[in-house]
Amino acid sequence: MMKRIFAATLLLVVMAAGFLVTGGTAQAASRISVSRAQYRILFHQCRYANTKKLRNQCRLAVSRRYRIGRWNPYLDCRTYSGITVCGKLKLSRAERRCVTLSVRAGLTRRRAEVECYAFA
Fold it and tell me: How many domains does the chain contain in total?
């Protein structure tokens, strides 16, 4: 029993040291595996960015951060008003203002983020 506790403690110490040395998480060093459907959602949600430059930056960020592999149950995907998005949305100032006003009007923050990202 003590050997298992020691091994688990040692593993945690080694992992913590690795995070300190690399300055981030293990996922920061490698691309996050997502299913083909999840990747398609991530890539296609870039069409809602306000300018062509932002759309291109979004698509580049998706291709650098994610890779097609297995379905990722930890990827935060949601659908509101027929719009499906995954992950954290990069909102413009106007979109953030829209979210604030929508939440004050009674929408949930998650729904407001999706709708303001897509329609504002």
Answer: 2
Cα separation values, 56 from 17, 66, 82, Å: 36, 15, 23
Tell me the per-residue pLDDT of 69-90, one tens digit each, with 9 for 90 and over. Answer: 999 999 999 999 999 999 999 9
Is residue 39 domain-shared with residue 54, that is, in the same domain?
yes
pTM value is 0.71
Range of the domain at 56: 31-119
Whether residue 82 is found in the same domain as residue 62: yes
Quick one: which H or E segment has residue 7? helix 2-22
Pairing of strands 32-34, 77-80: unpaired
The mean pLDDT of 86-99, rounded to a whole number, is 95
Which residue(s) pair with 80 in the sheet?
A: 83
